[in-house]
Amino acid sequence: MKKIFILLTLLYGVQSFSQESLDDFVDDFNYETRNDMKVSSKEIIDLINQKKATLLDIRFDEEYQSWNFPFALHIALPDLPEKMSTLDKKTLYVTACPHNDRAIIAMMYLKSKGYNVKYLSDGLLKLADYLRGDNAKKFIE
Question: What is the reported pTM?
Answer without folding.
Answer: 0.82
